[in-house]
Amino acid sequence: MASDSTSKKNDWSASQYLKFNNERTRAVYDLVSQIVPHVTVQNPRIYDLGCGPGNSTQVLLDAFPDSVITGMDSSPDMLQKARSTEALAQDNVDFELGDLSNYTPDARADLLFSNAVFHWLRHDSRIPTILRLFENLHEGGVLAFQVPDNYHEPSHRLMRKTALTADAPWSSSFSGTSIGELTDTARPDLDPIETPNEFYDALSPLASSVNIWRTSYQHVLKDARAIVEWVRGTGLQPFLHRIEDEGAKGRFLEEYESRLKGEYRELKDGRVLLQYPRLFIVAVRKGA
């Protein structure tokens, strides 16, 4: 079992994540807009799976002010931030620590919502977990989620490439794992997202409707270093957690940023565009 100090070291950082709160929350608004027509009960029971610092919970509360919402996350730091948010300190909102892989919401749930969480699961468990949650919904219950679909984007491809650099100060930190090899479940890089066809085929036998779309956001950021700061709050974390030496970690970040500069060319005003594809799914449970 990991020590408390190790757990805290490898925990998420709510403050790092929220550096790009507006950009990250855009997808939440887009997803919620497609949910509202399906949730028609007066006091819907909602679960925000992987609620993070509560930014998605706030959007859900604004859209469904008479709902009862439980935000679940695996990060104590994220939950602490969510619980300390004044607008969320209401009787109809609570937060709890949980693990998405085995978490089971109340069968009375009207909406299971998830913003950028399922991509953290490995391929073998991702769709089975989604189906387990969907099967537990009553007729008319809604499962709505979005996942980053950026495995092949330069921001994520260059994480893998930088980590695999030979004879670098950080190389030994990745010697025991096979980056890019999907059979190695202990590697720091995440699995690619399944195709819309795969999600549809899995959900449609249990659904009265399945709505799938993909959006590529074009986020205007200050420079390549801003891209580094963005992914330090998410996908880069598993890489950085493996590098214990702070000097080597700094060199890794410098090299990663240098490679990003070669892919993300400056605009006329010196800024860069971070293309960020996301896959969205809204499925409504049909009766048995």
TrEMBL record:
GO terms for molecular function: trans-aconitate 2-methyltransferase activity. One of its GO terms (biological process) is methylation. Keywords: Methyltransferase, Transferase. This is S-adenosyl-L-methionine-dependent methyltransferase. Residues 46-141 form the Methyltransferase domain. It comes from Lophiostoma macrostomum CBS 122681. InterPro entries: Methyltransf_25 (IPR041698), SAM-dependent_MTases_sf (IPR029063), Trans_acon_MeTrfase_C (IPR023149). It holds the Pfam family Methyltransf_25. Gene3D superfamilies: S-adenosyl-L-methionine-dependent methyltransferases, Vaccinia Virus protein VP39. The keyword Amino-acid biosynthesis does not apply.
